[in-house]
Amino acid sequence: MVGIITYGAYIPRFRIKTEEIARVWGANGKEIAAGLGVMEKSVPDLDEDTITISVSAARNALLKRDVNPDDIGAIYVGSESHPYAVKPTAVTVGEAIGATPVMTAADYEFACKAGTAGIQTCMGLVKSGMIKCGLAIGTDIAQGAPGDALEYTAAAGGAGFFIGNDDVIAEINHTCSFTTDTPDFWRREGQAYPRHGGRFSGEPAYFKHIQGAAKMMLEQMGTKPSDYDHAIFHQPNAKFPRNVSKMLGFTSEQIKPGLAVPTLGNTYSGAVPVGLSATLDVAKPGDRIFVTSYGSGAGSDAFDITVTDAIETEIDRKASPSVADMLSDKVYLDYAQYAKHKGKIVMQS
Amino acid sequence: MRDVAVIGIGLTEFGEKWDTSFRSLCVEAGSKALEDANLDGDQIDEMFVGNMSGGRFVLQEHIGALISDYSGLASTTHIPSTRTEAACASGGLAFRQAVTCVASGMQDIVIAAGVEKMTDVGGGETTDTLAGAADREWEGIYGVTFPSLYAMIAKDYMHRYGLTREQLAQVAVKNHYNGARNPIAQFRKEISLDTVMNSTLVADPLRLMDCSPVTDGAAAVIVCPLERAKEFTDTPIKVLATTQATDTLALHDRRDISTLDATVAAGNRAFDMAKLERKDIDFVEVHDCFTIAELCAIEDLGFCKKGEAGRLTEEGYTALNGDLPINPSGGLKSCGHPVGATGVKQVCEIVEQLRGEASGRQVDGAEIGMSHNVGGTGATVVCNIFGRV
Fold it and tell me: Is A198 close to B200, i.e. CB distance below 8 A?
């Protein structure tokens, strides 16, 4: 059955605390951190972008398990912060892992769910026999305007999944999607920062679509929340996934391993991929995982996944850092250093 | 002048109505009012629609014709339809125009509606749009917003009358208690004193829980000559007074910033018109856009001396089972404040109470009720008094 052959994540080392950002804007940091459930967020280094994050995540996956580059027939990188408007991120990843030239590649954008859209594309190509193996990555150096509510959470990171048919470590039993035209969050061509509809991004956007896809999955599979060992929901903050999981009938224990947002922030297209990586880091053979992403604009992709024995026999999960390892290996920045890292201080050449 | 009665009321649910348009909200309230009065649309002679800022909230002007059109009356009976605007008192104005229209003998059956759709724009634009209710040249242009204007009133009031922060918070606690019992309220939940005291500071001393919310909603009321009212309903409610007053647009031009002279004037006129005294009133719907506004309203309408309303609120005098229940609907704070609709919603609440149909929040023995609707910081005030027939 189609599934995940190996996986890897990458999170930049730098962090800024919610309270430090609030200090600059004269806001109540403790209150904001408690309200969002986000204590700190990751910050990229000066020379990191979604290409370097993608390459690092792909290499971390390959450290866990060797994949013959000739078998990689497709690479999709989902992000809303591709370094180039025209020139794909995916080709640089392909060169870096030696998968070129006999492969197809493309960059995806669907707000925060472009990564899971890439997984679905790879599944289709593998199931149809067009390719042996495909790589899907979700990553972002998330954008949030200084002073906007998004600035407290917009973080950097990503994860990649090699999708194939043979000796998979996790079978993807089913996927389905729920999509509408709902303008809750957008960024036009040439604009530096996204805009959003404030509270409109909640109930009629995030909650409606995640619940739509998740209920569809439960119905199509004839399952109930308690049939799953773990669940991952898109995590723009900690409050939304906690609430939506409760609404659907999942417990806080089920979402715990995949809830990285309190100390990572919102990595947009990277959020669910990083959450799934963190869950696979600790999953046991036989564990069943429920995944639902969300991308503004708006849509949700749901996945029903079963971990196989191969997670213990075919890959070496310790060969590259786990999400927990990367989250605990950190260097704090103050807001001035953060501004430099994010390119908000323009230096003379 | 003819006596006038309310024969039908209609309300939408108040809240963030993401899936309902401006026109749909208004038509829904109007249809409910028609149903309540057992009327068909073509029996309506004239329409007034209160709306503060369709132009900025949903980029729509020409509201009178729009609502007539979507009520199915523009191309059939071609009724006259007029939009009224006085900021947050727009709805109060629509109702008063409808009553005047019938009292004068010009028309027989008139509908007054109020509507606002505030959630289609971002919070900053909402705040700035509402700031248009103040004096743009002397207040808004310098960055003054409504929370800050009412915060100045609250500061002045606390300084002069020794009002405590806790007493101010009790207004919100009481209104949420009532709103929790109102099926159309935006926030149908009780809150504690701690919740108010610990909520985010908006403009010192006002906290988030001192402020009415941003709301979508609509309300409609149908009036006719009292002598014809029994044709349509067994429980007509008589309009005993409808009055209006103005004051300076800018807060700083007032004689006294924590007394709303327009409330005093409209209130006095209402009692004169109804030939009633304060003690005759069983309950009041006042314009609590901020908690401090409720205290000012109780005093400026003459129900107690200046500086006493905080203590009375704390002692339960204004509670649902108190001597003078204030805002049994939950007020603007808990029921919500779709600015153009609020004045008409207040009338709907009073009619429900006087009919004895406000289950769960019914004021015992309600015979006479009063409403008080404010535009801006008190530049326009509309007061109405109603009684059972």
Answer: no
Give me the mean pLDDT over the B306-332 stretch: 98
- Best mutation target among A25, A31, A185 (most B Cβ atoms within 10 Å) is A31
The reply to whether A198 touches chain B by the CB within 8 Å rule is yes
Angstrom distance (rounded) from CA B191 to CA B143:
31
Q: What is the ipTM of this complex?
A: 0.73
A28 contact residues in B (CB cutoff 8 A): 200
Rounded to whole angstroms, the Cα distance separating A51 from A48 reads 8
Confidence band, pLDDT 50/70/90 cuts, at residue A203 = very high
The pLDDT of residue A24 is above 80? yes
CATH of domain A1-335: 3.40.47.10
Exposure string over A289-310, b if 16+ CB within 10 A, otherwise e: bbbbbbbbbbbbbbbbbbbbeb
Q: Are strands A170-182 and A297-307 parallel, antiparallel or unpaired?
A: antiparallel
Interface contact flag, B18 A31, Cβ < 8 Å: no
Answer whether B119 sits within 8 Å of A199, measured CB to CB. Answer: yes
User: Which residues of chain B are within 8 Å of residue A204 when distances are taken between CB atoms?
Assistant: 18-19
Among chain B residues, the shortest Cα distance to A29 is held by: B200
**pTM for the structure as a whole:** 0.86
Q: Do the beta carbons of residue A200 and residue A241 sit within 8 Å?
A: no
CA A291/CA A176 separation, integer angstroms: 11
Please answer whether residues A153 and A239 qualify as being in contact, where contact means their C-beta atoms are separated by less than 8 angstroms: no
- The answer to whether residue B328 scores a pLDDT higher than 80 is yes
Q: Sort strands A331-332 and A14-17 into parallel, antiparallel or unpaired.
A: parallel
Would you place residue B68 in the very low, low, confident or very high pLDDT band (cuts 50, 70, 90)?
very high
Please count the CA atoms within 13 angstroms of the CA of B385 that sit on its side-chain side.
22
In the numeric block, the tokens 């429900």 are attached to B352
Q: Which CATH class is domain B137-212+239-388?
A: alpha beta
User: Mean pLDDT of all residues in chain A?
Assistant: 97
CA distance B19 to chain A (A): 8
CA angle A293, A136, A109 (to 5 degrees): 60
Q: Tokens 């505030």 appear where?
A: B118
Task: Return the residue of B nearest to A203 by Cα.
Answer: B18
Compute the nearest-CA separation of A71 from chain B (Å): 48
Q: Name the phi and psi angles at A81, rounded to 5.
A: -135, 45
Query: Quick check: A28 and B123 CB within 8 A?
Result: no
Percent of chain B residues past pLDDT 70, beyond the cut: 100
Residue numbers of A annotated as active site: 80, 112, 234
Show residues of chain A in contact with B122, CB under 8 Å: 197-198
* Pairing assessment for the beta strands A185-186 and A104-108 based on DSSP bridges: unpaired
The residue type of B123 is G
A198 pLDDT tier (thresholds 50, 70, 90): confident
The answer on pLDDT for B62 being more than 80 is: yes
Min CA distance, A114 vs chain B (Å)?
26
Residue B124 forms contact with A (CB below 8 Å): no
pLDDT digits (tens, 9 = 90+) for A64-105: 999 999 999 999 999 999 999 999 999 999 999 999 999 999
Distance CA B372, CA B375 (A): 10
The residues of B annotated with a catalytic role in the active site are 88, 337
Superfamily of domain B4-122+215-237: Thiolase/Chalcone synthase (3.40.47.10)
A99 CB burial (10 A radius; 0-12, 13-18, 19+) = buried
Residues with Cβ within 8 Å of A95's Cβ and at least 6 positions away in sequence, in order, are none
Q: Which regions of chain B carry the CATH code 3.40.47.10?
A: 4-122+215-237, 137-212+239-388
